[in-house]
Amino acid sequence: MNIAVFGTGYVGLVTGACLANLGHNVHCIDIDERKIKQLQKGIIPFFEPGLADLVARNVSRGRLLFTVDAQTAITFAEAIFNCVGTPSREDGSADLRHVFAVAQIVARTARGYKLLINKSTVPPGTAQQCHSLIQETNPSSEVEVVSNPEFLAEGKAVHDFTHPDKIVFGAKTLKAYSLLRRIYTGRARTYIPVLETDWETAEMIKYANNSFLATKISFVNELANICERVGADVKMVTQAMGLDYRINPRFLNPGIGYGGSCFPKDVRALIHAAREKGYEAQLLQEVDLLNERQKNYLAHKIKARFGQTLQGHRFVVWGLAFKPQTSDIRESPALALVQGLLNHGADVTVYDPVAHVDVREVFGEKVRYASSLSDSVIDCSAILLATEWDEFRNVNFAELGKTMKHKMVFDGRNIYEPEMVKEDGFEYVGVGRK
Ligand SMILES: NC(=O)c1ccc[n+]([C@@H]2O[C@H](COP(=O)([O-])OP(=O)(O)OC[C@H]3O[C@@H](n4cnc5c(N)ncnc54)[C@H](O)[C@@H]3O)[C@@H](O)[C@H]2O)c1
Fold it and tell me: Is 262 among the residues known to form the active site?
């Protein structure tokens, strides 16, 4: 099938490459000319495991191309994926201007029956709004809007796209469901549940998914904070909880809060969408507040240990991306930590396997960028682990400690065993550890 994909960010590029890999002919469109030029040269603008090979393979087979020419792509395609960004506005609502811009250009350009597939995360009611916009722009348009939310996680996006837990189609006609099934044939060869529903339910499923995961994280962070005060060890508590089949062990790791381009913005967008309909989503408001508070967790611990002013101390922050296996630093708790340290007069060294380029755009020369683990700890008063890259899991603390001012680890993701770190002569502070 001929397909157009609007937006070449994490979702659009993965969608385009994976659909091409399933045998479709795909045009990927972006308004960011620099990004398209990079992609045309084979440069992937962000780090995502497996994506570069997939893109290269499908470009060389002639099934995948990158363009800024939206009109040609729309004319060529039977199905048009809308994968543009939906960032937060000041008030927490989802900014849908890019989604509507795509709907409008599709309405103006498309001739005959085509699907406009909203894959971006959008509040319930958006498919209806896109449909109305298309009809207003071009009353004779035969474009049918559908909702097909994406559940991939950065860091394993290609795997998640090809092996999803579920596929959700929100549509109004049998023709649309049938076309959607054709697009995904191949991906659904192994058993993957396909849920066919209406627009609003499909849109809501995505928010429900992300809000629940965010709630699980804030809940477990709350538990960690209580454990710390009552003398319990949260790691053991959550391990036991996870053995209850009704709970499930995943997303039960306390830390310094969730970040990224999805959980924070989607929780806030759902709160806002509910408020617009007269409902105060109090639980979700607390989830968001708790998460913001948890981002200050390590800064508080450091001040408790070193004093209110941190002048004269250098700290190294390990891991800057919002999670391992990605270069994405949007809303990363690590950035809040770095900023907190700078605000209190500390000198900061940072180290991340892939995110330095993006972090430089935020902090410029205010921090030192280390070239390796051993380089990162020189003259430091403590190591602050913010993102649990594999590289940080098995480190030789005894060796690293030789160039440090104080031997201390603040483990913001609870990846170390306190006793083992202490054996290497380090003080250890985890999140909710005994
Ligand atoms: N990143 C994730 O892990 C993830 C997972 C599931 C769902 N989502 C959702 O998918 C959507 C996209 O997320 P992302 O992380 O890929 O965003 P992103 O910011 O990485 O990429 C969005 C891209 O859309 C482009 N764009 C904006 N307006 C355009 C237009 N009119 N025409 C063509 N291109 C346009 C931008 O230039 C940008 O390259 C969001 O709604 C997000 O919530 C993201």
Answer: yes
Q: Cβ distance 395 to 373 under 8 Å?
A: yes
Distance 12 CA to ligand 1 centre (A): 6
Distance 82 CA to ligand 1 centre (A): 9
Which CATH number covers residue 164? 3.40.50.720
223-234: pLDDT as tens digits: 999 999 999 999
What's the rounded Cα separation, in Å, for the pair 28 and 148?
17
Other beta carbons within 10 angstroms of residue 259's beta carbon come to: 24
Residue 64: beta bridge partners? 26
403 found inside a domain: yes
Which of 197, 230, 264 corresponds to the end of one domain? 197
Q: Which domain holds residue 316?
A: 295-429
CB 82, CB 6: distance < 8 Å? yes
Domain membership flag for residue 202 = no
Of 293, 311, 337, at which residue does a domain stop? Answer: 293
Element (H, E) at 411: strand 408-411
In total, how many domains does the chain have?
A: 3
Confidence of residue 434 (pLDDT cuts 50, 70, 90): confident
Residue 174 and residue 123 share a domain = yes
The owner of tokens 């709160």 is: 271
Flag whether 434 is in a domain: no
pTM of this structure: 0.96
Contact status, residue 178 vs residue 31, Cβ threshold 8 Å: no
Quick check: CB of 150 below 6 Å from ligand 1? yes
